[in-house]
UniProtKB/TrEMBL annotation:
<protein>
    <submittedName>
        <fullName>Phenylpropionate dioxygenase-like ring-hydroxylating dioxygenase large terminal subunit</fullName>
    </submittedName>
</protein>
<dbReference type="Pfam" id="PF19112">
    <property type="entry name" value="VanA_C"/>
</dbReference>
<dbReference type="InterPro" id="IPR050584">
    <property type="entry name" value="Cholesterol_7-desaturase"/>
</dbReference>
<dbReference type="InterPro" id="IPR044043">
    <property type="entry name" value="VanA_C_cat"/>
</dbReference>
<dbReference type="Pfam" id="PF00355">
    <property type="entry name" value="Rieske"/>
</dbReference>
<keyword id="KW-0560">Oxidoreductase</keyword>
<dbReference type="GO" id="GO:0004497">
    <property type="term" value="F:monooxygenase activity"/>
</dbReference>
<dbReference type="GO" id="GO:0051537">
    <property type="term" value="F:2 iron, 2 sulfur cluster binding"/>
</dbReference>
<keyword id="KW-0411">Iron-sulfur</keyword>
<keyword id="KW-0001">2Fe-2S</keyword>
<keyword id="KW-0408">Iron</keyword>
<dbReference type="GO" id="GO:0051213">
    <property type="term" value="F:dioxygenase activity"/>
</dbReference>
<feature type="compositionally biased region" description="Low complexity">
    <location>
        <begin position="347"/>
        <end position="362"/>
    </location>
</feature>
<dbReference type="InterPro" id="IPR017941">
    <property type="entry name" value="Rieske_2Fe-2S"/>
</dbReference>
<dbReference type="InterPro" id="IPR036922">
    <property type="entry name" value="Rieske_2Fe-2S_sf"/>
</dbReference>
<keyword id="KW-0223">Dioxygenase</keyword>
<keyword id="KW-0479">Metal-binding</keyword>
Length: 376
């Protein structure tokens, strides 16, 4: 018996790798994509989701499946502080409780909490949700990189949906060397050497992958951060023509849509305050944003053209050490989660069961604040 009947792939190690680990926060979409008075349907991390805002504007994330007959709630009606299924009128509140069954008032469904509801939050122009295992697992604190919470940093969000596995984006971001080749004509990555030796430096929340013989010239380091949410941070020096402020930081995360598609979020950040903030915002919108989108387009073209079995025919070398470590971390964590799920099932604390394979020494990274260990 599977514990995810709607998506049995989530009961395998490879499935969790392709569709995303559980007990993690994931970014879902831009805040502007969830409009007041409307019902929004999206697929993320192997789950079919309904997003909506209540009368106060608070966003809610629930399974897009009516507990009565399994109809799509996204085809229903928004009623302010609740939603109604378009099939038989069942009404549910933001906690997932059935509050009314118009066709059979007083029936046993009323008052039951039967609709899966995901803890949700909004920050920096995006919507986030917690994917627990088991479903009622309490969410870990939602921790952001400093660049998205420190008032001395200004940021803009770039959001994309690409036709490629989400892991391909993680690989791309943890591969600083591609900047010297794929992005050689970029205004920020036109300088520096095309050869390098890398090292891995551990941090309290992950690790930094950095060049040992070049700092502050090109895309010279990137940092993996796991605070119960996947983050990658990197830094690219800015030329003087980009205006006042320090180096250009990017805080990134990616979320699987399905096994072949993903959503990616790139917050372009710069440490600026006062009048420098105003100058940066103007220059970004007037001159720099278009160039940054051109770089993302280069990444999209390359990643989307890669075959689904790219990993199976690789020949990696020293520049790929970060990819090897990150993939091992994710695989070990997927195996650990399945082992725990099987143990819960054996003790009767959760339905179903699953067998696990992988490194028996795998441990889940402990949630912690994302500091500045990766500063270049």
């Amino acid at each position: 018996m599977t514990t995810h009947p709607s998506n049995p792939a989530l009961d395998t190690v490879d499935g969790l790798i392709k569709l995303g680990l559980r007990n993690r926060w994931y970014a879902l979409c831009r805040s502007s994509d969830v409009r007041k008075g409307e019902l929004t349907r999206i697929d993320r991390a192997g789950e079919e989701l309904l997003l909506w805002r209540d009368a106060s504007g608070t966003v809610h994330v629930q399974e897009d499946r009516c507990p009565h007959r399994g109809a799509r709630l996204s085809l229903g009606v928004h009623l302010g502080d609740r939603i109604a299924c378009g099939y038989h009128g069942l009404q549910m509140d933001a906690a997932g409780t059935v509050v009314s069954v118009p066709g059979s008032p007083g029936c046993a469904l009323e008052g039951k909490r039967t609709l899966r509801t995901f803890p949700a939050a909004e920050h920096a122009g995006a919507v986030f949700a917690w994917f627990g295992d088991p479903e009622d697992a309490p969410p870990a604190p939602l921790v952001f990189p400093d660049e998205l919470v420190d008032g001395e940093w200004e940021h803009f969000l770039a959001y994309v949906e690409w036709d490629a596995p989400w892991i391909y984006s993680l690989d791309n971001l943890m591969d600083p060397m591609h900047g010297a080749f794929l992005h050689r004509k970029s205004h920020t990555m036109s300088r520096g050497r095309r050869e390098a030796v890398f090292q891995i430096r551990d941090t309290g929340t992950g690790f930094v992958f950095e060049k040992t013989d070049q700092v502050g010239v090109n895309f010279d380091w990137s940092e993996w951060i796991d605070t119960a949410m996947p983050w990658i941070r990197l830094e690219i020096p800015y030329p003087a023509t980009a205006g006042p402020g320090g180096p250009f930081r990017i805080a990134c995360t990616a979320t699987p849509i399905n096994e072949r598609q993903h959503a990616a979020f790139f917050w372009r950040c710069r440490r600026v305050t006062g009048w420098e903030r105003d100058v940066w915002r103007f220059l970004y919108k007037a001159r720099l944003e278009e160039r940054h989108w051109a770089v993302l387009e280069q990444d999209r073209t390359m990643i989307e053209a890669m075959p689904p079995d790219a990993w199976e025919r690789e020949n990696l070398y020293q520049h790929d050490l970060a990819l090897v470590r990150l993939r091992r971390l994710i695989r070990n964590e997927a195996a650990r989660q399945l082992r725990e799920r099987a143990e819960r099932s054996a003790h009767g604390s959760a339905p179903g069961g699953a067998s696990a394979s992988g490194d028996a020494s795998a441990q889940r990274p402990a949630p912690a604040s994302a500091g500045r260990e990766g500063s270049g």
